[in-house]
Amino acid sequence: LSVSSSCFITLFVLFLWRVEDIADACKCSPPHPQKAFCDAEIVIRAKVVGKKTVSNAIKYNIQQIKMFKCPDQVIHAVFTAPSPAACGVTLDLNKEYLFTGELETGRMYVTLCGYNLPWDDLSAAQKKSLTRRYQSGCDCKIIHCTSLPCPISTTDACLWMDWGTNNGRNLACIKSNGSCAWQGVTCPRVVGNFDFS
């Protein structure tokens, strides 16, 4: 091999190694919204109003609309990693989101491993559960079953088998009489706008 061919092969191998490294950098399954709620330190509904790069993060300025879970404070910005490969979340300006994240030194951080969806993408059952159901089920575990068999050896867990559908995301895992089980959320049928904020 010539020197140039050898250099090219070396660079190509390094490139493939870097691509594989980036692909492996952020691995997590989309969580059930109740699990994301219970695991998060802070859960809010907010509108994204600005974006700025700060050191090794992206800062999104927000207007907080509703606090679902958090110490009593107002959040003015969310921070995330600069790329999806590093689990960074990409947000659209002037759009409302549900954010589930962590607090570090007074800053809210969100990642792809959380449940950070546009508010309009949430179902009515999910919006209602944010204030009335998820918190009451935080003593329960949600076990994500990706292939059968998926045995449960405890009574404080719900098996989530939501293959190819979003139906399970509309349920809440609630403890009753000492054991946990899936429960549906009854939402009223109304004509016109109905706001669960």
UniProtKB/TrEMBL annotation:
It is found in: Secreted. GO terms for biological process: negative regulation of membrane protein ectodomain proteolysis; response to cytokine; response to hormone. One of its GO terms (molecular function) is metalloendopeptidase inhibitor activity. Residues 1-25 form the signal peptide. Zn(2+) binds at residue 26. Disulfide bonds join 26-87, 28-113, 38-138, 140-180, 145-150, 158-173. Pfam families: TIMP (PF00965). InterPro entries: Netrin_domain (IPR001134), TIMP (IPR001820), TIMP-like_OB-fold (IPR008993), TIMP_C (IPR027465), TIMP_CS (IPR030490). The keyword S-adenosyl-L-methionine does not apply. Its main location: secreted. It comes from the Eukaryota. Residues 26-138 form the NTR domain. Gene3D superfamilies: 2.40.50.120, Tissue inhibitor of metalloproteinase-1. Chain B, domain 1. The keyword Signal applies. GO terms for cellular component: extracellular matrix; extracellular space. Keywords: Disulfide bond, Metal-binding, Metalloenzyme inhibitor, Metalloprotease inhibitor, Protease inhibitor, Secreted, Signal, Zinc. Belongs to the protease inhibitor I35 (TIMP) family. This is Metalloproteinase inhibitor 2. The gene is TIMP2.
